[in-house]
Specification:
single chain, alpha/beta, 6-stranded parallel sheet, 14 helices, 40% helix
């Protein structure tokens, strides 16, 4: 069940072709508070609690109820980060007594997130309902699992299930892997770069230092930021540092085009700050599947850093240390130019596929369905 497309800022109808033919997708009407219920960009804060799509709680419950009345459903699965989806699932679970599994993915309530007091109260309430009523909860990283276990030590460990993100082997395999090499060493970051969670300022400083000491030039090196967002923040920084000719910002492209761009790049860049230590960006798994050298600017103790430490073609450096970033880029350039990297075997790579993780998820859901009626609240 999904919100209708008018609730989203941007819609790519090509993705609808990826929906399995056997799936019955129910679309619900929803407003996007920021777009549809604001005046000059301002709106009542309660209209965006717990998220901008809260209006679909009513339509979602109504449409799903109509379906549940007609068709027997074995279980309900709700997935974050659309927080209101968990509320819909909770209401349906209470109404129809159908087992519920919450796919939390990343931690919802953290020490510094969300900062809004009302939203924190709602998140805490949702977590309490998940703890009390769900058969299982699913997270995507070891760090997230440890965090929840420390918050709720009274809950059995078996309640928390780790199923990591992964790459879509079928989709990537359907694309031509033989892309033309770039005429110069190209380091690519594909996707959003948030100013707080992925602040690239120290990276830009390292690039500036390397350009001005002659280590790189626009003819030998390019850092490409594909669909990074927040261009209005980053472009003035690039201009001030005089690295606009070395760092290029590209616009949105389709997923298939993004994969092809990764395949053609010399190396791939991951940026993840310490405040996201419990998360692993989904594109990291795509990077692993592509099989190119990876530069990870992230704490080694975080989940992303620990994953990349197992990948032989990955080089790590802290995101907030200009000198270490510069050293890592120099090492990357040297190893790319000399062919000194070693890579995972095909068998090792497949462990990170979504197909592999889906089998684990299927086992979990099968276990839930086998629970006798009356054993869940």
């Amino acid at each position: 069940m999904t919100c209708k497309k008018l609730a989203y800022d941007k819609v790519d109808t090509k993705h609808s072709k990826q929906e399995p033919a056997c799936a019955n997708v129910i679309r619900c009407f929803a407003f996007n508070t920021q777009r549809h219920l604001s005046i000059n960009g301002k709106y009542l804060s309660w209209l965006a609690q717990p998220d901008n799509w809260q209006s679909w709680i009513l339509t979602g419950v109504l449409r799903a109820s109509a379906r549940l009345i007609r068709v027997k459903v074995d279980l309900i699965v709700s997935s974050y980060p659309i927080t209101s989806a968990h509320i819909i699932a909770y209401i349906l679970h209470r109404m129809f007594k159908v087992p519920w599994v919450a796919d939390l993915r990343d931690p919802m309530l953290q020490d510094d997130y969300p900062q809004n007091k009302t939203k924190r109260k709602i998140f805490k309430w949702i977590e309490s309902k998940i703890i009390k009523h769900c058969c299982f909860a699913v997270v995507t990283t070891e760090g997230a699992k440890r965090l929840y276990q420390s918050k709720y030590p009274e809950i059995p460990e078996s309640f928390w299930n780790l199923i990591p993100n992964g790459f879509d082997e079928d989709l990537i395999e359907s694309l031509n892997p033989h892309q033309p090499n770039q005429p110069k060493l190209t380091l690519l970051h594909s996707g959003l770069i948030y100013p707080s969670e992925r602040d690239p300022c120290q990276l830009f400083a390292a690039i500036s230092s390397m350009k001005h000491d002659g280590s790189i030039s626009c003819s030998t090196f390019e850092l490409r930021l594909r669909a990074c967002g927040h261009e209005h923040i980053y472009r003035p920084i690039l201009k001030k540092l005089d690295i606009e000719d070395v760092v290029k910002i590209g616009g949105l492209i389709t997923f298939a085009e993004a994969i092809k761009e990764m395949q053609a790049a010399s190396a791939l860049l991951v940026i993840q700050a310490e405040n996201c230590n419990y998360q692993i960006p989904a594109k990291v798994y795509e990077y692993i599947r592509i099989g190119k050298p990876i530069l990870g600017l992230t704490p080694s103790k975080g989940d992303t850093g620990m994953l990349l430490s197992k990948i032989p073609q990955a080089i790590l450096a802290p995101l907030d240390d200009t000198y270490m970033i510069k050293t890592a880029i120099c090492e990357l350039i040297d190893k790319v130019n000399t062919g000194a990297f070693t890579f995972l075997s095909e068998h090792e790579v497949k462990r990170y596929s979504r197909q592999s993780q889906a089998l684990e998820f299927d086992k979990l859901l099968t276990e839930v369905v086998s629970i006798p009626e009356g054993k869940f609240s």
